[in-house]
Design brief:
heterodimer, A: mainly alpha, globular, B: mainly alpha
Chain lengths: ~160, ~100
């Protein structure tokens, strides 16, 4: 499950390589799913991913993630019907929103298709949580195998 | 110190290693091959998709309606609008189809 952070780390490194080392060390500490997705989207739009901007996004996420986890642990049992409130399915909706945010990127649809098929097959065969790593590797491999111009890199031959 | 404390600490260290590990590997190379760059560009779609796709296996009408609403709103709206629309459709639909 946590292997996805290795990929996030590899992907975001290019965006923050110009920071001083200590700032980078802190930056990787708060590299969560939304942090990665939003920083990648910002870099894609051509704007700089600065340290202060990054902290402005990441520190509230860190603080409130911790506080809200505590609140959920203490008071969660008071919710009478979590199913009716859709709580079990809010995370997939949120992650779908993050996926859709990258739909203008070259090769987005084939990568999503490859990862979706591979992760579903892995989920049914190998089982959770391996479907995350296996599906992710399938999508990344597709982009590696196809000629790079499909990913918008370099000139069309 | 209790065992729980050390388990939490070990978990924190392991998590940090995953979050810095990919960068440490990539940064050892002076130049990034175009195919590696293509692979890195695919990371957001490739990883985030795996957190959604298997949920389709046990999705009923309410869940499908919510996901479709999320996609439709994404054509115009931002992340927050997508999420709220999907959540609203989900909660509403579950009142009728469980």
């Amino acid at each position: 499950m946590n292997f996805r952070h290795v990929l996030y780390s590899a992907g975001i490194g290019r965006r923050i390589a110009h920071w001083p080392v200590l700032q980078q060390a802190l930056g990787y500490f708060i590299l969560t799913d939304p942090q990665f997705a939003i920083a990648e989207a910002r870099a894609e739009s051509g704007r700089p991913v600065g340290f202060v901007w990054y902290l402005g996004l990441g520190l509230p996420v860190y603080v409130f993630w911790t506080i809200e986890s505590g609140l959920g642990a203490v008071f969660g049992k008071m919710i009478p019907d979590t199913h009716a409130l859709g709580i079990d399915f809010l995370l997939p909706i949120y992650f779908l929103g993050l996926v859709l945010g990258f739909r203008k990127r070259p090769l987005w649809a084939p990568v999503v298709a490859a990862s979706a098929v591979a992760s579903i097959i892995a989920y049914r065969t190998v089982g959770s949580p391996w479907h995350v790593s296996i599906g992710a590797i399938a999508g990344v491999l597709l982009a590696v195998i196809l000629p790079p111009h499909h990913s918008g890199i370099g000139e069309r031959p | 110190m209790s065992t729980t404390f050390w388990i939490i600490l070990a978990g924190a260290v392991a998590t940090y290693l995953t979050r810095v590990g990919g960068h440490l590997v990539i940064s050892r190379f002076d130049t990034i091959h175009p195919r590696v760059e293509a692979g890195l560009n695919a990371v957001p779609a490739a990883v985030l998709t795996t957190l959604v796709a298997p949920e389709l296996l046990h999705a009923g009408p309410a869940e499908w309606a919510a996901l479709i609403a999320t996609v439709l709103v994404s054509l115009r709206g931002g992340l927050m609008a997508m999420f709220l629309a999907g959540a609203a459709v989900l909660i509403l639909a579950r009142q009728f189809v469980g």
